[in-house]
Amino acid sequence: MAQYSEELDGLFVALADPTRREVVRRLGRGPQSVGDLARAFPITLPSFMKHVRTLEANGLIRTTKSGRVRTCALRRERLALVDGWLAEQRRIWEDRTDRLERLVTEEEQ
Amino acid sequence: MAQYSEELDGLFVALADPTRREVVRRLGRGPQSVGDLARAFPITLPSFMKHVRTLEANGLIRTTKSGRVRTCALRRERLALVDGWLAEQRRIWEDRTDRLERLVTEEEQ
DNA sequence: CGAATACTGTGCCATAAGGCTAAGTATTGC
DNA sequence: GCAATACTTAGCCTTATGGCACAGTATTCG
Prior knowledge:
Chains A, B: This is Helix-turn-helix transcriptional regulator. Chains A, B: Residues 1-94 form the HTH arsR-type domain. 2 copies of one chain form a homodimer. By secondary structure, the first copy, chain A, is an alpha+beta fold. Helix content of chain A is 65%, strand content 13%. Chain A has 5 helices and 3 strands, in the order H-H-E-H-H-E-E-H. Chain A has helices at 6-15, 18-27, 34-38, 45-57, 76-108, and strands at 32-33, 61-66, 69-74. A 3-stranded antiparallel β-sheet of chain A has the order 1-3-2. In chain A, a hairpin with a 2-residue loop joins strand 2 and strand 3 (69-74). Chain A is elongated. The model of chain A has no long low-confidence stretch (mean pLDDT 90). The interface between A and B is large, with 36 and 36 residues. The structure holds a DNA duplex.
């Protein structure tokens, strides 16, 4: 099970929930308070807060509290890690097709 | 909760497990039988088969049975959907920074 | 044909995930 | 200061997830 990454795992788990993915989408437009975000979803605040905590625990967002308001902001550099994993898969696949092509070319000779 | 996609949801859920992510990685190098794949993991075959079924149900792999051997192959075009979602987030963020920059530029005048 | 191989199906189990209500706590506005 | 606001905490519930053992089916090999 080479190449196991707990970090990547958390990121994918965090993104595996539609509510959390939508939060990420909204935060892409800029920071927002928990309350403002929550209003967009059909679940209770405590339930919503769990998602916020999950996102923060897995590093996808950063939150700060000022007075009674907690503000959330996206951490783009962490989304880049997911991107990196996908890029790796592409690279593996491309290496493979390159090898296959060489093989076919050689056989054609 | 605009923009909800059950398809994307399945893809992220499928990729949220390290075993399944590793299977995807291995299949990037080319198709492989369930048995050959399973040997790389410290779980029983029935447990491993669940992962295979999850991957197939969410469209990340295709499997075919010939004789008593089931062969798995990666569906790259489906990984591209995940890529697409990430690209969208990047686009949203870039639009936003463009707007912010315009704002800053205007204020500087 | 009989044994070995490669899954497949069933049922059980423990934990985690995601939701809720109800009751706090800390700030802010009147 | 008192009420409203904006979370927070706690506890509970249901379903989903990931793992297991054990037994079965279908192919293939000697």
